[in-house]
């Protein structure tokens, strides 16, 4: 089965359809490991004073890290373990928990009505439904989540 992901390209070509297999990292055999390495590299790069903590000034301009610091349970700084995957399974514990809560009928996918209470998913439902079957699976959400994670610049 081939899954297509729309990606916006700036210029005269407008919307270009890209196969997921062509995206960087899609074919990785250990995506969670790779994600963890990217997060560790990001942490090291951002920890300019080398104290092993990321504070507000060090994350400025990085929306992902800024949101992590704004969470209710934030201690005001991030440690490396805060950014590492908490599980080797490609759908982290938090994503799995939120998915289960939203999947009210327990069918293993979120339909439009189940996403209405989740504004971000509701707004992006069509683009996140990678196989265009009218439902979002945990795997599709993991692919989207992973694609949004910061990446290290190429060496």
Task: Please render the helix and strand layout as text.
Blueprint: E1 4-8, E2 15-19, H1 31-46, H2 56-59, H3 63-70, H4 80-83, H5 93-102, E3 109-110, H6 112-115, H7 119-123, H8 125-128, E4 136-137, H9 138-148
Antiparallel strand pairs: 1-2, 3-4
How would you portray this structure in words?
The chain is mainly α. Helices cover 43% and strands 9% of the residues. The chain is built from nine helices and four strands; from the N terminus they run ββαααααβαααβα. The strands form two sheets. A two-stranded antiparallel ribbon has the order 1-2. A hairpin with a 6-residue loop joins strand 1 (4-8) and strand 2 (15-19).
Condensed summary:
By secondary structure, the protein is mostly helical.
How many distinct helices? 9
What is the total tally of β strands?
A: 4
Return Rg in Å: 17 Å
What is the terminal separation in angstroms?
A: 33 Å
The helix fraction, in percent, is 40-55%
Average pLDDT figure: 74
**Low confidence ranges:** 1-29
The structural class is: mainly alpha
Give the oligomeric state: single chain
* Sheet with most strands: 2 strands, antiparallel
Spatial shape: elongated
Lateral strand order in the biggest sheet: 1-2
Roughly what fraction of the amino acids lie in strands?
Answer: 5-15%
- Secondary-structure element string: EEHHHHHEHHHEH
Structure characteristics:
two-stranded antiparallel ribbon; 43% helix; elongated; two-stranded antiparallel sheet; 155 residues
């Amino acid at each position: 089965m081939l899954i297509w992901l729309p990606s916006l390209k700036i210029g005269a070509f407008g919307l270009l359809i890209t196969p997921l297999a062509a995206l960087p990292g899609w074919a990785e055999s250990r995506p969670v490991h790779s994600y963890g390495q990217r997060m560790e590299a990001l942490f090291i790069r951002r920890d300019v004073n080398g104290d092993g903590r990321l504070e507000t000034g060090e994350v400025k301009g990085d929306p992902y890290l800024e949101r992590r610091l704004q969470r209710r349970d934030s201690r005001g700084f991030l440690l490396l373990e805060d950014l590492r995957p908490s599980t080797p399974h490609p759908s982290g514990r938090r994503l799995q928990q939120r998915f289960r809560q939203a999947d009210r009928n327990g069918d293993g996918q979120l339909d439009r009505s189940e996403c209405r209470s989740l504004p971000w998913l509701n707004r992006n439902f069509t683009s996140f439904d990678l196989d265009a079957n009218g439902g979002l699976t945990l795997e599709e959400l993991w692919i989207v989540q992973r694609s949004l994670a910061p990446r290290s610049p190429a060496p």
